[in-house]
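Summary for the funding panel

The consortium committed to producing paired sequence-structure records for every protein in the target list. Below we show the first two records in order, beginning with the earlier of the two.
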Amino acid sequence: MYEIKNGVLFQNGKKTFVLGESYYPSFHPSKFPVPPEGDRMGEMVRDLRMMAEAGFNHVRFAALGDVSYDEEKGEATISSPFVDAMIAEADKNNLSVSIRLQGFSVNLRGFSDADILNEKGEVPDFAWCDFVRTSTNHKGILEDNFVHARDLARHYNTFPNVIGYQIYNEPKYPQCKTCFCDYNMHSVIAFREWLVKCGVLNEMEAKEYMPPRARGEQSPRMWALWRLFSAQSMTAFLLNASEGAKAPREMPTYTCQTSDMSCKMNAVRGVDAFGIARGMDILGYTMYMHGWGSEYYPMCFEGDIFESAAKLHGKECWCIELDSRTYIPPSVYNRGTYATIGSGVKGILYYQWRGDCPVPGVPYPNSCGILNYDGTKTANFDNALKVNRWIASVNDLLMGAERAMDGVGLFYSFYALAFSDAVENLAYDISQKKCFNMSATYLTFLYTEMRKTGYTVTVTDGCGLKENKLGIKVLVVPDFHHISPEERATIEEFYDKGGEVFVGVPTSDTYHCLPRMTRFDRVERTYQEKVYLPPICAHDLPSLTGIIPKAIAMNYEIGVQVLQGDGYTLLLLSNIACRKDVVDAMVRVTLPFTTAEFTSVDGERKVEIYGDILVVHSIRDGGMIILK
């Protein structure tokens, strides 16, 4: 028997780490592992049996089928015989199930004025993965989304092994090369009302106001507010459908957000983990970066943002899609797993079980899966089973531990990302290759430096800082110049209460440089060019603040993440060297401990102890030191 309590999976009353797979026999006209003329039922039965035998305990399906709407009753009728059969088959194999309720945008009543529009008033040329295609402020669409989610949930609630629902997949605004969204009049009118509510415009000023359709058309503040409003609208759109899914019976909901929070394009994509965490039961995200080389710290950063946002609201975090391509080397699969676990997630769903048929129109033929589209094993298949066995062997330790809190926080400002986008990209369209966003660069750079110093970094937005439930004592604000007036007031309030604040400032007169930091002292002259500012780096923070990291990697080839349980500490180690298959790990630990053991997918190793230095030789992909 499976159930979810407070974002944690319980199997027969025991806390269990979620080991899941995505299995979509067809959620898109050109995306399926078994073609319509094939034996979909027979292959599905085989696949689910193999999943259970491989050690997986969860599978994610999509609500595929026909949905018809009765306007008189205001209800939807569901017909999904194949999905029903999959759920029943999963139950036979003791697999828990979650279901993605929406594919592309829901428009049950066929509203003709609901499309997302670009700045030219045109329907964009959507990519196949642009799942949200209607205005997020169209009241009829919001009602349809609620009803659709409600009645699908009502249908699937009858299955005992269905434990939760996904609201959309990778929801964001379309990034269609040279367009901005959403200029549908329903969103424009909602933005006017929002500006009045926020005191930016009065009702007379707002009556005919139109949001900026290009950077530089209006002040950077108005551009930033337009993008901030758009992000909040996307969040509200998703939470509205989440409430629909929970209406028949309180079942957990999550969405699968793109891991874009720290990227330069999030100013236009509108991904908001902090907003979603306030309303959904589990915070879910996708991850297609890898846990080694130059991607290790950005990958960890995204995981830490989502886990921090979840914890700020008393929730748990799952990685809903972790890259498991058919051609991915086992070592990369393993390193990604170690790094994801190190962010404190309570579940991993790999994407996906089986590759898609290589037929015309398929976006990624036979690309994602631990099985090839024809059912044969990839080179990673047997390794993936070893990973599952290892995670099961340390299940109790993982489920009893949380990401360590050092009291060191990094401030995340969506407004700053949008403001930076406004002032830096006047000459460019939104093409990812051309855009700048130094606010995003500052974020990632300072996070990386703080991690290399040894800190477990808590990421917070303004609302989270105001409540400060995670006990931040030292706050780093990467882009103080571009935060909103409301965020600045919150930071000053934190400072006045005794918190220490360090702000990022450019290293020269040219803004496009990596930042140094300086102490915040509320004296405006601190930010004037002609005042000398002592350059503070992340590695200065321990001596300046007295907060000593719990574990510090002594060699650059190893990444360290810290989880803490009752009476024990887990150090997740990752081999982040691209040119070395095997490395030695040297870690300085400032926590008291009596014993140290090392375990990994490849087996156990001896931990050599030299005072406060731990040494583990010949680590292949990574592993875990258990301190007690």
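The next record, for a separate protein in the list, is shown here:
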Amino acid sequence: MIKYFLSFLFICASLIAHDELSYNLSYLSDNTKKLTIDTVQNKKFISSNSKMLNLGITNSPHWFKLKFTLSNKEPVHSWWLKIAYPPLDYIDVYLYDENNTQISSAYTGELRPFKDRSVADPAFIEELQLRHEGNYTLYLRIQTEGALQVPIKIINSNKLIKEQYRPILLSGLYYGLFIIILLYNIILYFYTRDKNYLLYIAFVTVFVFYQLSLDGIGIAFIWGDYPWIIHNASPLGASGFAILAIVFARSFLHTYKYKTLDKVLKILLYLTYGILIAVFIFPYHYVIQSIGAFAIIVPFVLIFSGFTALKDGYRPARFYVLGWVMFLLGCIFFSLNKFAIIGGFELMSRAMQIGSAIEMILLSWALGDRIKSIRDEYLIKSNELNKTLQQQVKVSLLKERQKDKMIIQQSRLAALGEMIEQIAHQWRQPLNTLALINQNLYFKYKLESFNEEEFDKAHDQINENLQYMSQTIDDFRGFYKKDPQKESYNIEDVIHSSVSISESMIKYAKINISINSKADCVVTNIRNELMQVIMNLIKNAHDALIENKIENRQISFDIFQKENKVYLCIEDNAGGISEKIIEKIFNPYFTTKSKETGTGLGLYMSKSIIQEHMKGTIEAENTKEGARFTIILPQAKPTVT
């Protein structure tokens, strides 16, 4: 029965026991920097009601006296002193019992070797050797060149273990967020090659370095026991962060467009460079005060810069301004807390972390919105350019078509003289015949030797010659129509008509013509234009045969079908085309003839007609005896009846 009763008492004691001991706190400023543990015990301390003293930025040592009682209600386990503010340079710990006998002492701090700490943690944790109930006095000597904030707790092992989870979780979330942001923007930089992403990556990296120097994680896990880095990491990170923030703002917001604003940013940038240099020259105490002031000034200027760009219609500045507003609020609360103007250590110590996390996310969005704005602007300009280009293409095509029509017309006019000459050749003999018949009839009429039979014969001869001349007119009629219509026709008929028109020229030059048609080849296009091409090729072959003094002069036409295409091959035996110029013969105004006899438009016009008007092709090649021109045209679609 007694055993169960004692167990019940132990459980009740555990329930009413506290995980944290309360204490009375007082402090003393050591302006002489000469007080020791022996001399300080006789000094009068200033009492404080706050459990988290914030004495602002000072480089004078301060002594803290904590009086507390360990009652028999507290369970027997280890008790720990915890000071959760990593940027404290030196901390001396002295524990006395109620008889003023020193029980233990410990020496720690940011500038002392991390490996010598009792617990490897960014916070300062020392075990208190409280062996029995009674009254205890704890003396702390703390000296730092930064903000002197002393969040002191005396807690047992259970609470110490529980409290370690929260900072680890918060730090993991905080730095994990920055790692994600960095990786995301590194990928975007390699994708876009935009220097603003590179500046933002450097900006975030330096800020992370600065934050690591504040929360002690840098000492615990990264740079370790390097006194110079430990002492100067915070001002180096802060000044580097300010420099990159200004450089990023000038690039991202295009402040070169606002001369006065850009000048202010340049001055601020040079001043920040000065602070960075001062880190290597002046004491930490003076530098950190300048950085604290700049931590408020710089965000204000950057926010104003963002508003200026936003007012000018730069949409990505929305997220930029909002981000810096959040960071500014965090900096203001953080700085005011460091200067002991406002309290609330637990929240205010993380104010900059909260503000910076939100700011970095918003700045990343601002960069993304910038890319989106550039893309939208590009699409708008691209659409406008496409519309303009389409209009220009239409105008250019119209001009080219008009030009082609002019060239074709010029070519026709150039050939007009040759055609008239050919008509004259064909009409000369009939006219001579008609003249002789007329003279013969006149003399016989005068001599009265005229009879009916001779009159009928003369009439038939006159009619025959007039029919021949009329047929010549029919062959040429319509050849120079301005807007002929497309029609379906047999290519062989066109060849015969072309040869007929050129008959006088062909007979005079004693050229043999052969036409070989293997099928009834019908095409649909403008008949007279194909005649013009064929007659131009006949004329070129005629000129080459005459020029090269070929004796047995031949021009052959071969017509056949293949895969819904009609092939027309025109070949001569004039010796061929020089390999040096064969690729140029279809160029406009290219000719091997003299200016008096050649314009250089014939073959160019022929190619234009075949390709543009008839959707076909024309090629030139040399054979063993001469040149061959091959015209390939789409076969006419069969008519449905």
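Regarding this second record: The longest helix spans residues 351-447. Confidence is low (pLDDT under 50) at residues 1-17.
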